[in-house]
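Let us practice reading a record.
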Amino acid sequence: MKRLRGSDAFAIYSETPTSPFVTLKVGIYRPTNSDDVPGIDEVKQFVLSGVARHIAYAAMRIVRVPFDLHHPLWVADPDFSPENHIFHTRLPAPGDKARLCDLISDLMGRPMNPDRPLWEVWIVDGLEERKIAIVAKLHHALADGNTIAAMVSDTHATSAAGNLHGHRADGETIPGRARLVRDALVDLARSYTVDIPRYYSYLKRARARGKALAHGEAEPDMPSGAPYTVLNCSGGSGRLYRYETAPLATMKALSKRFGCTLNSLVLGVCSEALRRYLQQVDTVPPAPLVAAMPIGALGEEDFKSVLNSDILHNNVAIAIVPMDLNIPDFAERLHVIKRAAESAIEHVRRRGGRRFDNYLDYLPGSAIRLLHSTMNRLQERSRRSFANVIISNVKGPSKPLYAVDGRLEMLELLSTGNLNDGGSLNITVWSYVDKVCFSCYTRKGRPFRSRN
């Protein structure tokens, strides 16, 4: 048994019936030889091999502690069976892009069974041109975007079945309530007596690094909140997923033309889409929109706590980037966003690892749940949000990926993240070989106000 780190446990506590805290990755494949299309059982064996190699604790479930006294545990699932996690479905005719997006919308909105390991894979056939999609759905407690990017970039997968049961500990059983409570109190005591003094020294070093990076310059100004817009209305529980792809060469040429990075260009493109959308359905707010942009941990030491740290876990910082949509000229707005993004990333770098989620290891789960729900209520009442949109930009594989011993070639790689109850839009951008995919995930039933 292993106890979850605070950042991973936060994904469990943040989940609600209307907000499954999941991430989804979709590989769309075509046969490399039109006369040799692998069968569903062969694709399933390929999936089994990849899951066994990449998903830590694939045969383990998460068990919460009574009253959330401390973070949940990874525990071997005595009833684990891959058949409960790998499924096959067929798209209805004509098997086009719209039908695939509808399926993804449905899958993302379904909560996962908390009494089983929190992952599932759907093998989808019936696509146009005899294509096959592999849809991997994972709870965010398992991994973040950077971890999954490393997983999908592995080109050594074969069709040989992996030993998923090798992740299990023989003879391990689900602990009872008394043991869960006892172990939780013991681990909390260890955290307070061992980790907190060490973490205090770690923070002192982080502050010193931040001052060194600042070179005496003032701390960049960061937005204190986001304007409350139609993007922050929770609406209904229905989901809507859509995606578009653009040539990577075109994106690179545009970034060179405008003198910015690809990441800044992505933010600029998203700002243009949001500006047009708000002009159509509502109004552009006078204050800049705020984008929450997950980025890799910058300038941080690998701080080892007494909690589980031997598996890949969530370890990202959030850069807060204002986007002023009242600037009509795209080039001018892009350069303003570019400077804002640079300041936001510099702010994260200077903090040297001092993030909110660093403290989650030491808080009981009940306290984290209370804090999370209180923040959501305050944002709703004050009509002042933390952010209007989540925009993630991840560099995907630069070389083609293959499946089933090279008999399937991946054409497109799609990705989307979760929506919390206070947000209505998640834009996830992944590159793959010569393409950039913009995935938009939103809620159905948001309030709509005509411009008239």
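A brief commentary: The radius of gyration is 22 Å.
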